[in-house]
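Let us work through a complete example step by step.
Step 1: write down the sequence.
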Amino acid sequence: MIQEATTKQSLSQSVIPAVPGEYYAYSARFTAEQPLYVFMKCKANKVRLVADAKSLGREANLLFLLESSTQAQVCSVREACTCGLLGDSVSKELFGETWIGHTVITAENFYEVRSQKDVTTLVKICRSACSKRETSISLSNGTVIAMMTDGGKYGMFLVKELTPSSILIDACHILL
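Step 2: predict the structure and record it as tokens.
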């Protein structure tokens, strides 16, 4: 099931975990108010408040940090918790591991993998890019990032638009 740019109003704020083997493709806009990224089912809002982290637990995966109109950063939720970005009342043990890495693919390659639902290539790219087990990466327009979790989620996102107030991504992921 593919979901293209869907408005936040039509997406559920509930915790709706990804279904094993189901491929998801979507767009999402992250802001300073809603920087938390969750790899859940398409009907679930992927963009969440930091305050939601505790209730999301292992479903919370990444945190976007806006730095300027041309630069931003993304980090794993566990790393964000360790750095104190999620507040004092949240323990990193609530979250699974999420690793990220720069890919060597172009935006065109990303859209091809995404539109063809090429799971084999997606997983191969993720394993290669995430082999260093990075937990934080600087972003800029056009960056393609791979992501992988200890729970079996594999995905990629393309930074489509970076402004002083938001990060728009196109993404795809699957839970194996």
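Step 3: interpret the result. The mean pLDDT is 90.
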